[in-house]
Every structure is written in C-alpha cells, then in structure tokens.
Amino acid sequence: MNRLAAAPGWCWWLIALAMVAGGQEIRVGAGKAEAAAARGETASARAELSDYRLEVSERDRRAAAQARTEEQRRQSVADEEGESARKELELAQGRATAAESAAGGLRGEIDRLRAGRAATCGAIATQQRKAGTSAVVVLGGLLEESDRMAGSCAAALERSRIAGLACEAVVDGMKSSR
Question: How far is residue 12's CA from residue 19's CA, in Å, rounded to a whole number?
Fold first, then answer.
C-alpha cells in the first residue's frame, strides 16, 4: 500500500491548512515589515519637510529683515536730502527777501530822482522838461518792471536748482547700496 494512503484524510487537510496558514503568516509578516519601512520613510520625509519649511521660513525672515533695513536706509537718505533741501530753500527765500528789499530801495531811489528832476527843472525849458521827464518816467518804469521779473525768475530758478540737486542726491544715495 501506499504510504500516503496510510495517513487519514483529515491529516492531509491539517497539513494543507498549516501550510496555508504559514504562507499567510509569512505574507502578513512581510506586509508588516513593508508598512514599518513605509512609516519610517514617512517619518523621514516629514522630518525633511519640517527642516525644509524651517529653512524656508528662516530665509524669508532674513530677506524681510534685509528688505526692511534697505528701505529704512533709503528713507533715511531721502529724509536727510529733504532736510538739506528745505534748509537751502529757506536760505534762498531769505536771499530773495533781501533782494526784494534792495529792489524796493532802488525803486524808492528812482522815485526820488523823478521827483528831484521835476523840482529842479525851470520854467524856461518846459518842452525839454516834458521830454526829459517822460524819458525818466519810462526808463524808471522799465527798470522797476525788469527788476521785479528778474527777482521772481531768480527765486524760481533757485527753487528748481535746489529741488533738482536734492533729487539727484536721493537717487545717488539709493544707488550707492547696489
């Protein structure tokens, strides 16, 4: 008889069940090992992601601090140049006031000369006096008007020059950091 036939049928079923159970146990063990490896990789990836986020946030913080510092430096340059320009404008305004005062004195002198000319002329040269007086009046008026215009033009040009120099200084100050 055959040796395989000597064992009862239930034994064979038991052996087959043990083999299937052992195979399943091996598969489950391998799955658990793979899951543990995947958890390890996930934890490693999370740690790397956390480190990367920390690095990026630190870089962003440094860049923002650097940008604030640069903005403060530029604002400081602009403030200093603005204050310098304001002081120069005040000086120019003082000079314009002094020039206007001097021009007022010149206009007064012209009026005095006109009045003196009219008082000293005699009755003999009435025709000459009229021609002379009108020439003095016309020339005096022209001188007064040109003096006023020159003063206002000079003041405007001085303000423009000061503003332009201040603007150039601000731009130069901002370029110096690059």
Answer: 11
- Spatial CA neighbour of 149 closest among 91, 103, 112, 98: 103
Task: Indicate yes or no: pTM above 0.70.
Answer: no
CA distances to 104, 139, 142, 144, 145 from 148, in Å: 9, 14, 10, 6, 5
What the block records as the tokens of 157 is: 């040009």
pLDDT at 75 over 80: yes
Q: Taking CA 79 as the corner, what is the angle to CA 75 and CA 82, rounded to the nearest 5 degrees?
A: 135
Among 70, 101, 87, which residue's Cα sits nearest to residue 176?
70
Confidence at residue 123, expressed as pLDDT on a 0 to 100 scale: 46
Q: What are the tens digits of pLDDT across the range 132-143?
A: 556 677 777 787
Q: What are the sequence ranges of the domains in the chain?
A: 27-175
